Q: What sequence folds into this?
């Protein structure tokens, strides 16, 4: 965090345009700093005043007694570049620009923003904003903000929260405060003209007092930076939980009109970040539920969920949600069940979920023992304890939980519906996560399980990843100089040389050559038009499948050439590709595309109807190891197909994963001239996976 | 509500086993009744006391001065039947049995429960429970409960809440209270030995002070009753919102171990209730969000959502969720945009979502005018207004919302994140629904839209439904006397006579007869084994498709007979069915099954991979009108297939819906001997829909 220390933990702060009116944007930070007891030096700057709030006020930047670490800039937009130049000249290290009227307003504002950035960069001054609320470092009482969040208490804690949105971020921070969730850092990055979300989050996570990162994103330019940070966070065991808006078409349109920055298709963001172990939250409450669990719980060593309730129905609700999220609700071991029967009165169920019934009110030890016994089960890795109301028994229950927390090693969360306020406060004081409903509790547990698994996978993959990084594959020597679709045979040679299996085929310039090729390849064959001007052969009616003899091939040749001419009279036609019909149990699509935020991303999806109707595809940043490629397959909604349909044999997952990994390495090796690659379909069966058609576009 | 008035609104209440210890189960109801000022007569019954709580106490039932409307029974389980007999003899009308130790404990308890019901029924005494917390009628202060909910305030309101679970129901009621959501009725039905969820809900909804029903279900026996009630509720415009646990396999297993009652497969419950206009909630908070919106809002006249926020990001989040739930976020009319530009400062976006920015704090009229203008747009039918924090401006904002509520006719909800407590209270006092987050707000709006649409559909369908009810179709004259799979040709004749299109076919007893049949039907044909002992022909390898000539038919005949013998040496073989190969764009499955809760249900789903991998099927209670059948198609996740794949033509939806409706009528007409019917596949294309294979099982 050294480089951003002047921003996040400054030893001195200058406030440009400081005001004696503490209700104003340029008056509030000084009031907050004084009220909370910031220990560093504060330099108000304003020619109108001699002193503000008991401090000496300086007429201008030049007259400051020393170079401030940080300057708060709350002056009109047009004055900002000059301010930054002066600050740089005076030796300031960082500035937070509250002022709006920059990139968010249009071309003139964008130009002004660029001028401001250029002014700052000349002296190495780092910039937060403009158009931002600033930041709070709750440890050192750095209240460099005018936002509403600072009006209330800002207790320090293990969570760093970085938000691109000021208004929404403030609301989230206020919700965190209501839960007693301490935000060590609250930073609003605003327009991110210089410092962006990733750099700020990295610096905050580097603070050893921070265990969990939380972020609110509206757009992302630096996807590669985010993924590098995600890797560091996995290694450090510090989860990053992100809420990003723009999940759907409607949302993305709204986001585009709002921020002008868009992380490409949301499915790419979703898959790539999941691959990096980032936990994505649906909304603000979901994010805080997960963050609370991370802030309080050890990481579980597996995905088996134990459930202890005082209501059978709540147990069912929890089991429902667990199944939806892929968490196991294991049947308890025989020995566990026997121990539970000793603990729980006869009429409670002693399978999982475990219903202790209302009886525990009379016998508090019952709840304590049930939780302990369930967490002792070897198949259980974490637990949810469900309670409701219990106004009259809060102190007794707190004592039980204190004991449980001391006695167990595995993580658990409490779900206490309609909990009395002092129950929530008490549990949080004990460092126990407490959620407001069954589903939020399961959602939080699922996030714990997922991050823990991502971390194990990441560490297990370390060697394979290092190998990939060291030898991403030789860059292809012979990319043609021309842009557009690469000829099928040349593309095939390239793919094969990178270890990507493709179906055998030949180019035939006339009908008799096609027949001869079919003879060599073996019937049945397919015939496909080959033209640099026809990328989508099926749409041009340029494909004939399942041809069984020479007559069929001749007829198909004539037909596809004819169709191609009709489709585009000026298309250059090289002939037809003759290809042996491949067989496979399952059709997939594997491909590469260039994402504006993340660079080369690899995609694996189910083909045919699945692609069209269900858009069942998973993305990752390239390259991926074969193990990661297998995990991509596990995320397909239609993954059951890969295990065999209607009693058929399972497909060769290793071969399929190998192909996906090879494609991803090819994408990285080929470099920026590769626009996209589509292997569609890839046919996967029990004996391997092979690409049957491919389209490679160069720029 | 006349029949259950003695239960829900008794003029007098006897408390059997009344205790002077007001902390006990048999002491608490009396305390609650006295404290809240129940105006009816109260008769404690206990030979140990002369007076309790200032009231005369009676030694036994016989000595009561009059027949009580309602008796609260809090005596040991084994004494309950005698109590009920005595109450019946004394002329009591209803009893609430708190006692546990009945059906929930095992065979002996079940026998005791049956004895209790028999005792009650002899005199027409209606029974709530046993094993229940009782009920609260908040209007008349009927505190016939010992539950925790009654410990706090129980303000009356337009919501009737009926719960099968005591513990979870209490938690939900407490959460409702915290939101200021008045529960006119709170009823826990417990074991439902006599009165069930449906009867109680019907009686509560009949109260004109109740506008909204809310229910928590763990199992349901009386599905037909629920659907009849749903129809009444649609006509009355009173929504029923249900949370039912047991959505997944894991949840259903947990529910089975808990309650022993299961509403059949959850997908059936989901589809059938949706078809009845019941709004299903995922969990307790989701239910209360929706109930709050119903309690406060008029029903919208369409599904166009207007969004007014002070944060662009929140607008995106709302638009995301709206798209996920199928709500339109319409582009605003040009005239609306022009009006908005007059209202909103230049830098706010004036499309939908509308961002009024923080500026409205300085100019409150801005928010008011923005909401009015957006709701004025003809494409907007309801709106969400998003705010955050604003501690310093609560009073001003409340004044704005009071004005808005007075000025607009279309419904709107407020989403106020991290709202100050007095803001929530103030809005609720104004009768405005206020949700805690963007997603809950959209979820609530989606429920408003869905119920309003269900109601319109229901009323529009009234005539068609009446026709169906009057003429469900002639019962088939000729059901064979034997159980099991009906012969294919006989089944076909039956289906065709009920207007269900099937592919032409013939039965052939030997190979040459098969060839002759194929000639008549026209090649290509399919050959399928026909045996009363082989229901699943494909699994028995008893099907050959796409046969193009006589040789193929002969070979297929031999092959399927051979396979059938291998599959089951003792199978009686009638020969083979020869069938013309039908063509269709999309494969579907249409069927009937007998559900333990709902009776005959009709299913429509996508076939092949969709059925196996995605379980993409929708259920309804039979019969359905063609319009309702079309709505079933609209609920398929893969519905896009019906609109045409890869540029293909759309299927004939009217024909398909007609077939589904005909199947549903057939199911009702055929009566209880029909176990199930599977039309798999039904091939649908631009020219119609035809069943290609069918399996009809009789009992």
A:
């Amino acid at each position: 965090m050294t480089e951003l220390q002047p921003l996040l933990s400054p030893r001195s702060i200058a406030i440009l345009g400081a005001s004696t009116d503490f209700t104003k944007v340029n008056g509030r930070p000084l009031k907050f700093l004084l009220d909370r007891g910031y220990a560093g030096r504060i330099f108000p700057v304003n020619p109108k005043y001699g002193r503000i709030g008991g401090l000496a006020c300086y007429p201008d930047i030049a007259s400051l007694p020393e170079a401030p670490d940080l300057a708060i800039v709350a002056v009109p937009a047009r004055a900002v570049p000059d301010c930054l130049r002066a600050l740089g000249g005076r030796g300031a290290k960082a500035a937070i620009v509250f002022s709006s009227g920059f990139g968010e307003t249009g071309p003139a504002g964008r130009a002004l923003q660029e001028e401001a950035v250029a002014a700052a960069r000349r002296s190495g001054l780092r910039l937060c904003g403009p158009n931002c609320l600033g930041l709070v470092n709750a440890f050192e009482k750095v209240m460099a903000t005018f936002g509403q969040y600072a009006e209330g208490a800002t207790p320090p804690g293990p969570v760093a929260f970085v938000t691109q949105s000021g208004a929404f971020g403030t609301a989230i921070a206020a919700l965190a405060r209501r839960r007693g969730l301490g935000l060590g850092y609250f930073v609003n990055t605003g327009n991110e003209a210089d410092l962006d979300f990733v750099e700020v989050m990295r610096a905050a996570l580097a603070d050893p007092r921070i265990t969990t990162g939380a972020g609110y994103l509206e757009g992302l330019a630096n996807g590669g930076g985010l993924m590098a940070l995600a890797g560091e966070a996995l290694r450090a065991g510090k989860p990053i939980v992100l809420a990003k808006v723009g999940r759907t078409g409607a949302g993305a349109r709204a986001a585009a009109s709002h921020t002008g920055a868009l992380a490409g298709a949301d499915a790419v963001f979703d898959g790539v970040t999941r691959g990096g172990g980032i936990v994505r939250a649906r909304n603000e409450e979901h994010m805080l539920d997960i963050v609370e669990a991370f802030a309080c719980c050890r990481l579980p060593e597996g995905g088996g969920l134990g459930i202890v309730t005082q209501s059978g129905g709540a147990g069912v609700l929890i089991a429902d949600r667990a199944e939806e999220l892929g968490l196991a609700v294991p049947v308890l071991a025989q020995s566990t069940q026997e121990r539970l029967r000793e603990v729980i009165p006869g009429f409670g169920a002693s399978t999982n979920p475990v219903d202790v019934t209302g009886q525990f009110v009379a016998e508090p030890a019952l709840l304590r023992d049930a939780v302990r016994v369930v967490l002792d089960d070897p198949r259980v890795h974490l637990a949810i304890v469900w309670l409701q109301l219990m106004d009259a028994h809060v102190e007794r229950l707190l004592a039980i939980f204190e004991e449980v927390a001391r006695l167990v090693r595995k993580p658990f969360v409490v779900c206490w519906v309609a909990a009395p306020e002092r129950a929530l406060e008490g549990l949080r004081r004990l460092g126990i996560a407490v959620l407001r409903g069954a589903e939020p509790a399961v959602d939080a547990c699922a996030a714990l399980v997922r991050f823990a698994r991502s971390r194990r996978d990441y560490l297990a993959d370390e060697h394979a990843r290092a190998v990939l990084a060291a030898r991403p594959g030789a860059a292809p020597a012979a990319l043609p100089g021309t842009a557009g679709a690469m000829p099928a045979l040349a593309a095939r040679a390239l793919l094969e040389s990178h270890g990507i299996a493709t179906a055998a085929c030949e180019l035939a310039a006339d009908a008799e050559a096609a027949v001869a090729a079919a003879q060599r390849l073996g019937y049945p064959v397919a015939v496909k038009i080959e033209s640099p001007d026809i990328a989508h052969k099926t749409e041009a009616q340029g494909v004939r499948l399942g041809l069984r003899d020479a007559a069929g091939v001749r007829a198909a040749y004539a037909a596809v050439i004819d169709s191609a001419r009709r489709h585009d009279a000026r298309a250059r036609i090289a002939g037809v590709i003759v290809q042996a019909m491949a067989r496979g149990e399952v059709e997939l699509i594997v491909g590469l595309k260039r994402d504006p935020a993340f660079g080369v991303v690899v995609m694996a999806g189910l083909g045919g109807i699945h692609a069209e109707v269900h858009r069942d595809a998973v993305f990752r940043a390239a390259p991926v190891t074969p193990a990661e490629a297998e995990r991509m397959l596990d995320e397909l909604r239609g993954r059951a197909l890969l295990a065999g349909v209607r009693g058929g044999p399972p497909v060769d997952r290793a071969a399929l994963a190998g192909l996906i990994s090879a494609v991803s390495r090819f994408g990285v090796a080929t470099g920026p001239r590769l626009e996209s690659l589509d292997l569609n379909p890839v046919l996967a069966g029990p004996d391997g996976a092979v690409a049957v058609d491919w389209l490679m576009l160069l720029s």
User: Anything to note?
Assistant: The two ends of chain B are 40 Å apart (CA to CA). Chain B touches chain A through 80 residues (CB under 8 Å). The CA atoms of residues 149 and 440 of chain B lie 25 Å apart.
